[in-house]
Amino acid sequence: MTVTDDASSAPAVEVRGLVKRYDKVEALRGIDLTVQRGERFALLGPNGAGKTTLFSILATLRAPTEGGARVLGLDVVAERDAVRRAMGIVFQEPAIEQRLSGRDNLLLMGLFYGLGSAAAKKRAADILGELGLAEAADRPAKNLSGGQRRKLELARALVTDPKILFLDEATLGLDVDARRGFWAQVSALAAAGRTVFFTTHYMEEAEVADRIALIDAGRIVALDTPRALKARIGGGVIRLKTDDDGRARAWMTEQGLTPEPGGDELMLVHADPAGTLPDLLRHLPVKVLRVEIHEPSLEDVFLKLTGRGFGAAPRAAERAGGKVAGRREVNGGASA
Ligand SMILES: Nc1ncnc2c1ncn2[C@@H]1O[C@H](COP(=O)(O)OP(=O)(O)OP(=O)(O)O)[C@@H](O)[C@H]1O
Ligand SMILES: [Mg+2]
């Protein structure tokens, strides 16, 4: 399946000065972002950073408070219906109708988007085949496996044959095999020229993106290729947890080492982590509870920029009275 580009050369997504306030919570605080057509673009950040809010505005489900956004050149407010027809979205929360079969879910979606009954039937059959969901065709969605249900969400997003796909934590909670299967489908869709704009809490999923925006408390704090983001660290990483991190930090600083500020553990960037670690462990005046060495990960970059990991809640001063989202483990990546 290939995607023919339309005449317009507008970027896939253009966001300018976007602010979103929910009552007292400032969920987005001035986002500027351009996603090119055909890009696989990831949005990465901790719980409550504003990822779903941004997607819900791009998908025309919420209106911006200030600023604006265009999807494939179409204004998300003024051209809402056209945007809806042009994009597909897999939500963080289930959107399929659990009592309906896989096929009927897709038929319903096709009819909703104005396909005739015969066209909707053909489209449903084609997508079920393409995504390897034949088994799901005639069973109620609630009786499918978690992986099949997520694929059905993807199938639902594909009914309109969108040029751009928004995936908001589309694989959350799936096991490694099911996630791999899901991303194989997404890769095929991307290879056919679709833009894929996604969020994930799984670092290894973000690594496949062409570019990544790191988002924190409603602001983009860095935007680059995964490789360039990690190169910002400038060395290997030692992570340490001790029985007295304050004392360990002070001691390291005395020794001319410069641990990164903040974080639940000590992070030290060093040109030769393996070479320096034995000496460090021998001389540290505190008990080391845990230690690891790794190549820089995306979470390290985030920690260096913001002073905390993806699992930590935003600092009170940055929340403007907003509720604090719960902690979540960041799976995969070098620190797993
Ligand atoms: N309908 C709402 N009313 C009030 N506040 C909201 C609403 N939706 C989201 N928020 C708040 O806006 C902020 C951003 O939430 P959002 O869901 O966009 O974050 P997220 O990056 O998607 O987080 P997660 O990784 O947990 O999915 C949070 O502080 C959240 O509590
Ligand atoms: Mg979210």
From TrEMBL:
<dbReference type="InterPro" id="IPR027417">
    <property type="entry name" value="P-loop_NTPase"/>
</dbReference>
<keyword id="KW-0813">Transport</keyword>
<dbReference type="InterPro" id="IPR003439">
    <property type="entry name" value="ABC_transporter-like_ATP-bd"/>
</dbReference>
<dbReference type="InterPro" id="IPR025302">
    <property type="entry name" value="DrrA1/2-like_C"/>
</dbReference>
<dbReference type="InterPro" id="IPR003593">
    <property type="entry name" value="AAA+_ATPase"/>
</dbReference>
<keyword id="KW-0536">Nodulation</keyword>
<keyword id="KW-0067">ATP-binding</keyword>
<dbReference type="Pfam" id="PF00005">
    <property type="entry name" value="ABC_tran"/>
</dbReference>
<dbReference type="Pfam" id="PF13732">
    <property type="entry name" value="DrrA1-3_C"/>
</dbReference>
<dbReference type="InterPro" id="IPR017871">
    <property type="entry name" value="ABC_transporter-like_CS"/>
</dbReference>
<keyword id="KW-0547">Nucleotide-binding</keyword>
<dbReference type="GO" id="GO:0005524">
    <property type="term" value="F:ATP binding"/>
</dbReference>
<feature type="domain" description="ABC transporter">
    <location>
        <begin position="13"/>
        <end position="242"/>
    </location>
</feature>
<comment type="similarity">
    <text>Belongs to the ABC transporter superfamily.</text>
</comment>
<dbReference type="GO" id="GO:0016887">
    <property type="term" value="F:ATP hydrolysis activity"/>
</dbReference>
<protein>
    <submittedName>
        <fullName>ATP-binding cassette domain-containing protein</fullName>
    </submittedName>
</protein>
<dbReference type="InterPro" id="IPR050763">
    <property type="entry name" value="ABC_transporter_ATP-binding"/>
</dbReference>
